[in-house]
Amino acid sequence: MSLLSYHSGVLKQFQEYRKQFHISKSTLKSYEKYIGKFLLFLERHGVLDLSQITVSSILDYTNILAGYSSATGHNSLSALRVFLRYLHETGTLDEDFADKVPNIRYRRDARIPSAFCKDDVHRVLEDVDRSSPKGKRDYAMLLKSFRNS
Q1: How is domain 8-100 classified at the architecture level of CATH?
Q2: How many C-beta atoms lie closer than 10 Å to residue 79's C-beta?
Q3: Are the C-beta atoms of 52 and 17 separated by less than 8 Å?
Q4: Domain boundaries, the chain
Q5: In whole angstroms, how far apart are CA 29 and each of 18, 19, 35, 104, 128?
Q6: At residue 148, does pLDDT exceed 60?
Q7: Tens digits of per-residue pLDDT, 131-143?
Q8: CA 69 → CA 4, 39, 63, 120, distances in Å?
Q9: 69 phi, psi to nearest 5 deg
Q10: 3 state SS for the chain
Q11: Burial class of residue 87 (count of CB atoms within 10 Å of its CB; 0-12, 13-18, 19+)
Q12: What whole-number distance in Å separates Cα of residue 102 and Cα of residue 105?
């Protein structure tokens, strides 16, 4: 159930429009989530006519994303760019504000470097007693943690 009062129709229209590009269901769901938050922000700030979106309202929205993870910020702003282009293409906005949306640097594979050298990792893994279920569990947990670092 959407919390949107005024803009739920345009969100549905946007999703229907994006379906023609064979967008996956998960991407459409992401659009619904991230664009829905933007539209809810607009409603709560009195922007009930989408033609009244300004660079200022976009930047005000992006500022609230500062407290979120870089992945969430990146996904939110990417979806927002696509939506703003759609609003421009459909004539709702006279100007394409997509290039006014800031970028958040995000690397999907970014990881904290390991503090362990390969020899230390091998020694720790070799010392785990894998003859019991608990030892097998411990080994699996250690193996996963070392692979992710």
Answers
A1: Orthogonal Bundle (1.10)
A2: 22
A3: no
A4: 8-100, 118-147
A5: 11, 11, 10, 21, 43
A6: no
A7: 999 988 888 888 8
A8: 24, 20, 13, 32
A9: -65, 160
A10: CCCCCCCHHHHHHHHHHHHCCCCCHHHHHHHHHHHHHHHHHHHHCCCCCHHHCCHHHHHHHHHHHHHCCHHHHHHHHHHHHHHHHHHHHCCCCCCCHHHHCCCCCCCCCCCCCCCCCHHHHHHHHHHCCCCCHHHHHHHHHHHHHHHCC
A11: buried
A12: 10
CB 40 within 8 A of CB 4: yes
Token representation of residue 85? 């282009």
What the block records as the tokens of 26 is: 């998960």
* Amino acid identity, position 41: F
**pLDDT score of 1 more than 50:** no
Supply the pTM of this predicted model.
0.69
